[in-house]
Amino acid sequence: MRAMLALLLLGAATSAEAAKTLVVNANGYTLEANGGLRRFSGLLVGDDGKVLALLQRGAAEPKLVAGDFRLDAKGRTLIPGLIDAHGHLMALGLQLRSLDLNAATSLADAQAKTAAYAAKDTSSGWIRGGGWNQVSWGTGMPTAADLDAAHAARPVWLSRVDGHAGWANTAALKVAGITRATKDPAGGRILRDAAGNPTGVLIDAAMDLVEKVAPPPSAGEMEKALEAALKHLASVGLTGVHDMGVEPQAWALYRAFGDDGRLSLRITGYAAGMPSMEAIAPLRPTPWLYGDRLRLQGVKIYGDGALGSRGAWLLKPYSDEPGSRGLQFLDDTKEKNLFSRSNYLGYQVAVHAIGDAAIRQALDSFAEIRPTYGDKLRNRIEHAQVIDLADIPRFAELKITASVQPTHATSDKAMAESRIGPDRLQGAYAWVSLLKAGVALALGSDFPVEPANPFYGLHAAVTRQDRQGQPPGGWHPEQALTLQQAFSGFTLDAAKAGLAEDRVGTLEVGRWADFLLLDRDPFTIAPAELPQVVVQETWLGGARVFVRGAAGGQ
């Protein structure tokens, strides 16, 4: 009996040791827990998908047994999987499958793309899409008449690139019942002509007037959108995303994908406000599910709108619209109550605050609840774009993470100066100032507002230039990060912002083996070349989820 037990235990040990993965001949980089950069040439992954060892060049290879897998990286660069600290997963998937105006270079180009899309879409339903940006067109806000010229027969509803404004044609306005008599809702604005008639553009909360009558995507469309988003994100090297604004329908879809073993991404979810949190997990954050691939751990709360649509709430009026300071979404009491209730239930707060007034209000709210709830939840301010200089040290004092998106700075550079003038730019997109003050900085993209490719974000962070190399020398280059700082922002610091540095963000022993194989070394190429980095393979938990050129790859 004892001999039989010994044989069973030996068999169990052999099975547990099997199915390892060994990567050799790699040009490996990872950060360590203390932030130092470590080099290695080999990676050993256990059958549980976690790192067993990092191997130095010249070290003897671990012995493998039948069933194990050995991969010769052939000198390719291997880095940890990158984490986007602020994205919108379902919005990306839906955009990938709808009318996309991100590449539209002018109003006429947007009209042509809309007309072409409408001609191909032979259904009788609404035409949905987004990505338009009047700033890049060099025009004012577009109108319903402009959209009617492209397609008038069916309702057309297109969100602005930042998601804080919508553009409707006359048919959509009619279905929504929006007329001259329609009042601006709290936290929103209907743009109007000189006679007071709606022009066709709705800002922030006013968008709900159309959203509530526009047919939502079907369950089948949502499933296809998630498939498209997961495939795209794996192809650009993202193994983790902090999904900002999870609705109950999306959460149910993530659970279905998890049940089916189809989650090729680690999703740290932030509920779309208290109603969504109450519908998904009203008592406490969920545990990590599906091998640490899904968790609801925070609540996304909006404090203001966006700078491009003049919805960001400022301490002083807009330089290019002196009669407006933007939109305040919450009064002080309500914001403090929302923050307090979230932290009481164990949820991390992620508050959208772009303007200096919204940021100050958020910091004041955090200061009031901090004596009760402490710092362990690492509450966050999302975007933190225009900060009054006096408030920068308060982020560190209150232990608030600044979750910023480098490509916003290079996209906004022309618009931002006209919106707020040169003086307020001292505290705008001020990443180095935040770091010098001791503020935790997590990096993301805000996709689909910006492209999801994290190498675009690394490039913007270190050059302060757009992908056309403008402006020469960078826009306010004194705020440019080093490559190691930016790399940390998309790995270790993003993991910390998501309360997951004990699981992901580095390739240390015991962490998940989430890693990428690249076509070039981002640490040795010229910074201008960073947007050209190509992800050849993406691995999640020691398993391939993307191979470029393979069936289903790109």
How does this model look, in words?
This protein is an alpha/beta fold. Helices cover 33% and strands 22% of the residues. The longest helix is centred in the last third of the chain and has 19 residues, at 406-424.
Counting DSSP E segments of at least 2 residues, the number of strands comes to 24
Beta-strand residue percentage: 15-25%
User: Radius of gyration, Cα only, in angstroms?
Assistant: 24 Å
Give the % helix.
Answer: 25-40%
Q: Tell me the number of helical segments per DSSP (H or I, 4 or more residues long).
A: 18
- Biggest β-sheet: strands ordered side by side in the sheet: 8-15-16-17-18-19-20-21
Query: How far apart are the termini?
Result: 56 Å
Name the poorly predicted regions: 1-18
The gross shape turns out to be globular
Instruction: Report the structural category.
Output: alpha/beta
Sketch the major β-sheet. Answer: 8 strands, parallel
Q: Quick check: average pLDDT? A: 94
